[in-house]
Design goal:
The complex is a heterotrimer of chains A (321), B (329) and C (327). Chain B is of the alpha/beta class. Chain B contains 10 helices and 12 strands. In chain B, 30% of the residues lie in helices and 23% in strands.
């Protein structure tokens, strides 16, 4: 007796390859990204309910706006001491100069506004370098294990031990005074803590069952790192980034204050440098000293609050029960 | 007089996600020298009861009802009296002595501490008492000055038992005392507990999810589900002739190897225990109940007499539907 | 235990070795002529001095030979001659300025740690309370503030005197110059000069300790043995101080010592602000003078100090934690 041929009710799905979803199908990659999108939305929602995080975010957006819109809110000519828009030096706040004037008669308000650009820029760029180096080292160390890991972690620990400011001072003194150098110096000296965190996270992700399964299925190292480890380590890296920016901004301020900053640009640190150097402290020129300092405090505070809020969300142990 | 008398206990945790009613009206009674077993799955509220008895729950938790220990009202006690009653009136043996002992304090000192607090002896007398206790639980006295990490799981649990006995309490609450131990050690610890309970005539509240353990140890059994007691009575009766479908399922989930009855009856209850913040309407068990029938989703059964010294909260129990009505939820 | 100790000491030495080697390569691998790099921007930049520097640093010799010489010199604590301190050796210059830093940084670190830890303990214990939220807020604020800015404001307020603030403290320095005070009155004078920088350094860093301790304590409070302690009838105060704190203190200690590196950073800027004649101010002066041998010497010293502090922390931890002591 002939058995009727079995008609497939639908074409069997082509095998999902590691390279991407098969055409016209909801492949594994789409599913994974959809899942990540959902958890991102969940994090955002939880974040919104966090008062500290929201306050930080608001302050941050304010300063970013100030930095971006600087040319519109305070004329760039105000930074030029020969500009006719300058006033009498060392003047306390007045209607014309809400924050008073510095030793060259420039408006401290203008200086502070423009200072936001450099301070934020240096902070962000330096952090970028630091995160890239740190993440690279952390992931490679965590993933490769054995002697590469020991070597890299030993290196990281050594760098962690070396006190930041003396090292940065030596480097910056040698290399000279420019924006790029400051960014490089801060970036190159702050990667260790990131590397440590990333490595720890990489290690824990590496042990998870789905990674083992992927490996058993023959996934290549590259695939494992980019598709499994990176997306899971990513959120933690991000939270850490925020906190690193705060530190980077403080570092730039300190280095500039000590005379290692770019003499041609205005950052909050260089404002304080010239203020202190001109004897503003003993002379009581509070209007010159307070604004840049407060700006730094607010920005660093904002970054830190956002970072803490994110950390609270991503690190369950610290959450209120 | 009963050692422990709990009436209409209601415990609600306050969390960021809202209120969680962990215990929703529980009555318990334990007499002198009696062992009451309290069984149920995780999340049914049994550990909460253990914490409630000595007021060890987080500060903002709402605890209502009556708890009488040796006739004294626990919930209304002043802090000073509460501290005196803690351990001397009732003591607790915690699960997983993994972290139940202070890692940086010697085990002997941890027991001495509580003896001294309750003024039951001076330093020397306390040390002697500790040696005596160690002997009773079968621990070598040279271990008295060890740190917790130097002891095995079974040894740590014996230390906890010794500590629980230290102030001669009337009641011992054993909260999953053997859950974290391997089977062989578990058997030893259980035997020890039975022996001590008999020797000292202790009243015990034995909390666990493992019914088979309770069959050996307890005189009476209470089964909890979704924050309420759904059946109680003498152990043998409840275990071998359950009146509540949940009890039947629990008892069946632990097959005896070699017992014919289990060979062709794979059991095990499907589904999960209900989320305390989303308890099903009517009888909380009805979604998983194999014998649920028409009134179950709408009628919340009360705990009613179901035999001699037995109670069960099921609509299948005689008189549940015709007697004074339990209101629908 | 002994293996642990030896291991830790070996690690410390290895780290120190790394720093020494790193120091050597620091300006030899920079692009360009190291001698020119060293003298760049200074008044002494001329062919003769360049040549002199090249010879001094042995730059005309092959690299391995340079390294050996460098190693030998460093081990004998010969760190070269300061460029601009009239040819005196780096050692001498540094040695003169060690004591003021030790005095200021030592005392303020101790004060900072004690106060910070206590704040952290109470904050963590009463998590969410007004005290906790308040101290967290305060800590956060101070942490976000450049410590030297705080120093400048304090200087302005209490030494310079501005607005409602009285100028009651000296504007800087270690002692009143040319006053010729001795004995007790000398020390009172020094103390008087130390009040402001001490205050600033203490406040600037107590937040770090507070947060570390607070988090450590919160972690510990989630552990079961805390419930056991309460169940045993132990008073809340004792649960905190006899059970929670000893356990929370252990991880806190290592983290605390690790932050010592930042304290040195603060020392540099604060000494500068208050003209306190210690190693910190010396560093800033070295920056201005482009005195690289001095800067390198200071860098080595600071690093060595932190490495030593870490070692001490590890040893202390080993001694205090019974779990480590046994194994």
């Amino acid at each position: 007796m002939k058995t009727p041929p079995i008609e497939p009710t639908a074409a069997p799905p082509p095998p999902a390859t590691a390279e991407g979803p098969p055409p016209d199908r909801v492949g594994p990659r789409r599913i994974a990204w959809a899942r990540r999108w959902r958890s991102l939305v969940r994090v955002a929602r939880t974040y919104r309910r966090n008062p500290m995080g929201m306050a930080g975010l608001v302050i941050l957006l304010f300063f970013i706006a100030v930095a971006v819109l600087a040319p519109l809110i305070a004329s760039g000519e105000g930074l030029d001491p020969t500009c006719p828009c300058t006033g009498v030096p060392f003047q306390p706040p007045s209607r014309e100069f809400p924050f008073g004037t510095d030793n060259l008669g420039r408006s401290v308000l203008t200086l502070t506004i423009w200072g936001a650009r450099i301070s934020l820029l240096v902070g962000l760029m330096a952090t970028l370098i630091s995160m890239v180096i740190g993440s690279l080292i952390g992931i490679v160390a965590g993933y490769l294990g054995r002697w590469p890991e020991s070597l890299l972690m030993r290196l990281t620990d050594w760098f962690l031990v070396i006190p930041f400011l003396p090292l940065a001072i030596v480097l910056a003194s040698l290399l000279g005074r420019s924006l790029l150098i400051i960014i490089l110096v801060i970036g190159v000296t702050s990667w260790p803590s990131t590397a440590r965190i990333v490595r720890a996270q990489t290690l824990s992700v590496k042990e998870r069952p789905y990674v083992e399964r992927a490996r058993a299925l023959g996934a290549s190292g590259w695939h494992l790192v980019t598709r499994h480890i990176l997306p899971n380590v990513g959120p933690l890296i991000f939270a850490n980034t925020i906190l690193t920016v705060a530190i980077a901004i403080l570092s730039e301020t300190t280095l500039s204050f000590l005379g290692l900053g770019d003499p041609l640009s205005t950052s909050w640190g260089t404002i304080l440098e010239s203020a202190f150097g001109s004897g503003a402290a003993t002379a009581g020129n509070w209007w010159w000293l307070l604004p840049p300092g407060f700006a730094i405090v607010l920005v660093v505070l904002a970054f830190t609050m956002c970072g803490f809020a994110l950390d609270e969300i991503l690190n369950p142990r610290l959450r209120q029960r | 007089m009963s050692v422990l008398s709990v009436r209409d206990l209601r415990v609600t945790y306050r969390t960021q996600g809202g209120d969680v009613p962990a215990v929703r009206g529980v009555d318990l009674q334990i007499d002198r020298g009696e062992v009451l077993g309290l069984a149920g799955e995780s999340g049914c509220g049994k550990s909460t009861i253990a914490g409630a008895i000595l007021r060890l729950l987080p500060p903002r938790t709402s605890v209502e009802g009556t708890i009488l220990l040796d006739g004294e009202d626990i919930l209304g006690m002043k802090p000073g009296r509460l501290r005196a009653v803690r351990w001397a009136g009732a003591s607790i043996i915690f699960q997983g002595a993994m972290h139940a002992l202070n890692p940086v304090q010697r085990v002997g000192d941890q027991i001495v501490e509580t003896i001294l607090i309750h003024g039951q002896s001076d330093e020397r007398g306390a040390r002697a008492r500790v040696a005596e206790l160690f002997e009773q639980v079968g621990l070598p006295t040279r271990r008295i000055d060890d740190y917790p990490h130097e002891l095995s799981g079974g040894q740590k649990q014996r230390v906890m038992i010794a500590m629980a006995l230290a102030c001669s309490p009337s009641l011992i609450i054993a909260d999953e005392p053997t859950t974290a131990l391997d089977v062989m050690v578990e058997a030893q610890v259980l035997a020890l507990l039975k022996e001590l309970q008999r020797e000292f005539g202790l009243a015990m509240l034995f909390i666990t999810h493992d019914l088979s353990v309770l069959v050996e140890v307890s005189d009476r059994l209470a089964i909890m589900y979704a924050g309420r007691v759904v059946e109680d009575g003498p152990t043998e009766q409840v275990f071998f002739h359950p009146k509540h479908p949940y009890t039947t399922a629990l008892a069946a989930a632990f097959p005896d190897i070699g017992d014919e009855r289990f060979r062709h009856n794979p059991s095990g209850l499907g589904g999960d225990p209900p989320d305390p913040q989303a308890i099903p309407s009517g009888c909380p068990f009805h979604p998983r109940c194999p014998v649920a029938f028409e009134p179950c989703p709408t009628t919340d059964p009360e705990l009613r007499p179901a035999g001699e010294a037995r109670r069960a909260a099921c609509l299948l129990v005689e008189g549940a539907l015709t007697g004074p009505q339990a209101g629908s939820t | 235990m002994r293996g642990y100790l030896i291991g830790k000491v070996a690690q410390a030495l290895l780290t120190l070795a790394f720093v020494v080697v790193f120091n050597f390569f620091l300006f030899r691998v920079m692009p360009g002529d190291p001698a020119a790099l060293l003298l760049r921007g200074s008044a002494a930049f001329n062919p003769d001095t360049l040549e002199q520097v090249r010879v001094d640093l042995g730059l005309d010799r092959p690299l391995p030979a340079q390294f050996v010489t460098y190693l030998g010199d460093t081990l004998r604590l010969n760190l070269g001659d300061s460029f601009f301190a009239r040819g005196r050796s780096v050692n001498t210059v540094i040695a003169e300025r060690v004591w003021p830093t030790l005095l200021l940084v030592g005392t303020s670190t101790i004060a900072s740690a004690i106060i910070g830890l206590v704040i952290g303990i109470y904050g963590g214990w009463r998590r969410g309370s007004a005290f906790d939220v308040g101290s967290l807020g305060f800590t956060l604020f101070v942490y976000s503030m450049p410590e030297f800015w705080f120093g400048i404001l304090v200087l302005m307020a209490f030494a310079g005197g501005v607005g409602p603030f009285p100028a009651i403290f000296p504007t800087g320095g270690y002692e009143t110059p040319a006053a010729g005070l001795t004995g007790l009155s000398h020390w009172v004078d020094v103390l008087n000069h130390m009040v402001l920088p001490f205050f600033v350094l203490t406040v600037a860093y107590l937040g770090e300790y507070a947060i570390i301790m607070r988090n450590s304590l919160i972690d510990i409070m989630g552990d079961d043995f805390i419930t056991t302690a309460r169940a045993k009838g132990v008073r809340e105060q004792q649960v905190l101080w006899r059970h929670a704190v000893p356990n929370a203190l252990l991880p806190t200690m290592t983290l605390t010592i690790l932050s010592l590196g930042f304290v040195f950073g603060g020392a540099i800027t604060i000494e500068y602000v208050f003209s306190w004649p210690g190693l910190g101010w010396l560093t800033v002066q070295a920056i201005d003078a482009k005195d690289f041998p001095l800067l390198q010497g200071l860098f080595l010293l600071f690093s060595a100090a932190v490495i030593l502090a870490n070692l001490v922390a590890d040893l202390l931890y080993a001694y205090l934690d019974p779990r480590v002591r046994a194994g």
